[in-house]
Write a structure and sequence with these properties.
The protein has helices at about 1-20, 30-40; strands at about 30, 50, 55, 65-70, 70-75, 85-90. By secondary structure, it is of the alpha+beta class. A hairpin with a 6-residue loop joins strand 3 (about 55) and strand 4 (about 65-70). The longest helix is centred in the first third of the chain and has 20 residues, at about 1-20.
């Protein structure tokens, strides 16, 4: 009887672990909350921002410029291969300071 309980608890723990690993991480900010935080002087270094591309300029002076919000732009030196209305949440490992 004890072996069955231990086996059942182990299987349940494994299922919970697998279920938790499959979930996508929630971004730290949306475009509007990030813009508000930046306007208040907060440092967003190391944070994830989810945003919808409202404008896209592939040949800007800084690189590939993705516009969102009132005065919020995200720039990539590599072609992000996005289109208007795409929703993005860049990973922390892909960020650079401009």
């Amino acid at each position: 009887m004890k072996k069955r309980i231990v086996l059942l608890m182990t299987a349940l723990l494994m299922l919970l672990t697998l279920a938790a690993c499959g979930q996508a991480a929630k971004p730290d900010y949306t475009a509007s909350t990030a813009e508000t935080a930046l306007n208040k002087g907060k440092d967003l270094k190391g944070k994830t921002v989810q945003f919808k591309v409202t404008g896209y300029e592939p040949a800007s002076a800084f690189g590939y410029n993705m516009e969102t919000g009132k005065h919020l732009n995200f720039v990539s030196s590599d072609n992000p291969k996005v289109k208007k209305k795409a929703t993005l949440s860049p990973s922390k490992s892909t960020r650079q300071n401009q």
